[in-house]
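Example 9 (inverse folding). The structure is encoded as follows.
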């Protein structure tokens, strides 16, 4: 199973459009189950001082971990640049699910990263940051990390990706990751 994670909880975010595009490509090309988890769906009850122990983990987070993270052999993170790095909610999510069944959740699994930015760098720093976090959790990160920059110029008025180069590199990233 591949779990595709839209790594921001901002309502109306543009990262979701890229996530949906990748999801469509995965559904066409993958010979396995593909699930999408959007951090906009994160419950708020998991944030409390006891969240950093397995006994204190909110049931809502355990359910997400059990459905989306534990059964996955691969993860795909699509996330924007926030303040030169990854969104805090993405880090908090990873922290929250790492207190219970850490090794079963992460160790030996693979991840693909797609950084999204309206600026010039496509979240290169954020991809480096998330790579370090995932490597610490014993996840192998696919080397073809894709920075998508100047996002606004790549879409049409309906929010669909219109740039043929971007669609081609996303198609290539999907095909390569499925063989990784």
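The amino acid assigned to each position is listed next.
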């Amino acid at each position: 199973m591949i779990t595709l994670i839209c790594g921001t909880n901002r309502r109306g975010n543009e990262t979701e459009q890229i996530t949906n595009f990748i999801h469509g490509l995965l559904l066409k090309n993958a010979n396995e189950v593909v699930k999408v988890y959007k951090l906009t769906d994160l419950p708020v009850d998991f944030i409390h001082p006891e969240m950093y122990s397995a006994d204190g983990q909110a049931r809502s987070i355990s359910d997400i971990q059990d459905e989306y993270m534990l059964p996955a052999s691969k993860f795909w993170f699509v996330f924007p640049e926030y303040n030169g790095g990854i969104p805090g909610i993405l880090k908090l999510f990873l922290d929250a699910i790492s207190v219970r069944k850490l090794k079963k959740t992460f160790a030996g699994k693979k991840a693909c990263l797609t950084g999204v930015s309206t600026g010039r760098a496509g979240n290169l720093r954020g991809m480096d940051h998330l790579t370090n976090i995932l490597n610490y959790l014993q996840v192998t990160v696919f080397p073809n990390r894709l920075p998508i920059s100047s996002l606004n110029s790549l879409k049409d008025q309906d929010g669909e990706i219109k740039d043929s180069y971007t669609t081609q590199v996303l198609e290539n990233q999907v095909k390569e990751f499925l063989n990784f």
